[in-house]
Amino acid sequence: GEVDSIHFSEKLAPGIAHKPNAHIGLSELINDETQPEMVRASAVRAISNYNTDNLIEQYLTLLNDKSPLVRGTTIDVLSEVNTSEYATYFLPLLEDPKRSVRIKAFYGLSGLTEMQIPEQYKESYNKVKKEFIDHLETNADFVGGRTKKANYYLKMGNLQKGIEGYESALKIDITNNQVRLDLANLYYRNQDYTNAEYTFKKVIKQEPEYGPVYYSLALLYAELNRTDDAIVQMQNAMKRMPENTRVYYNLSLLYSKKQDFKNTENTLLKGLKIDANNESLLYALAYHYYNSKQPEKARNIVIKLVDLYPNNTQYLSFLQELSSNN
After folding, report:
1. Residue 276: partners with Cβ closer than 8 Å, 6 or more residues away
2. Cα 292–chain centre separation
3. Is 98 helix (H, G, I), strand (E, B) or coil?
4. What's the rounded mean pLDDT across residues 200-218?
5. Is the pLDDT of residue 6 over 80?
6. Which long-range contacts (CB under 8 A, 24 or more apart) does 287-292 make?
7. What's the rounded Cα separation, in Å, for the pair 201 and 186?
8. pLDDT single digits (tens) 131-144
9. Measured distance CA(138)–CA(132) in Å, rounded
10. Is the pLDDT reported for residue 83 higher than 60?
C-alpha cells in the first residue's frame, strides 16, 4: 500500500537522479521480489549509471529472474555495456517463453554475425530473427521503432545507416529532443562536427534547462581544441547538473589545459564535496598537486586512494614515487 510506495520511491528516486551511493538502495529493490515488476526493472536500469564492473554478477543472475520485465531490462543494460562479451549469456534467452525477451536477446546479439552463433542455437536464432524483423516492421511508423532499427544497424557497425535511422525518426516527431540529442552524438561520433554542433544547439534552444546537452557540446568543443568554448558549456552543464561529478572532473581537465591551476583545484574540491570518495576526482586532484609541486598534498590524496582501492597497483606505485621523493 502507501507505505510500500514511499519505501521504494525513497530508494528509486535517488538512483534515477544518480545520487552518490544510491546504488545500495537500488540493489535492495532489485533483490526484493515482493516489489512490483516495474519498480525492480526501473532499479535495474538506474543502477547501470553506477560502476557496472561491481554489478556484473548481479546482472547475470537477473537474466534468469522470474520476471520477464526484469530479464528484458537486464538484457538492455548488458547489451549497452558490451554486447559480444555477454553473448553467451544471451544465447539461451533466444528460447525464452516470452516473445519480448527473445526479441531483446536477438537485439543484444546483433554485434555478432550469424556465423558466430553456435550451431545449437542457430535454429532459435533464425526463428527469433523473423520475430525481430516483424517487430521492426510493425513499429516502423513510430519513433521508437525507427530508433530501434537505427540502433540495430549501429550494433552491426553501420554508423551511416544508424544516422539515417535517427534522422528518419526525427522526421516523425521534430520536437523529440532525446532523439535529436542522440543524433547529435552520432554526428559527433562520425566526425561530422558541423552538424553535431548545429544539432546540439537546436536542443539547447528548445530545452535550455537540459544539462546533458551542454555537457555533450562541451566535449565536442574540447575535441576541436576550442577550450574556452568548452569551459563555458561545461559551466552551463554544472549549473543544471550540480551533483553530476563527471561535469566537475571534465571541467577541471579543461582548466588544467589552460594552466588555470586555481580553478582546477577549486573545481575538483567542489566535486569532492558531493562525493568525497570519487575515484576520478581524487586521482585528478592528486595529479594536479603532483604537477603543481605540492607533493605532500598529493601524497595525502594518494594514501586515501590506496586505502579505498588497495588492489590498484597504479596508486601503490604513485604513492611509492611520492614517498621516495620526500
Report:
1. none
2. 32
3. coil
4. 96
5. no
6. 288/252, 288/256, 288/261, 288/264, 290/318, 290/322, 292/261
7. 15
8. 999 998 999 899 99
9. 10
10. no
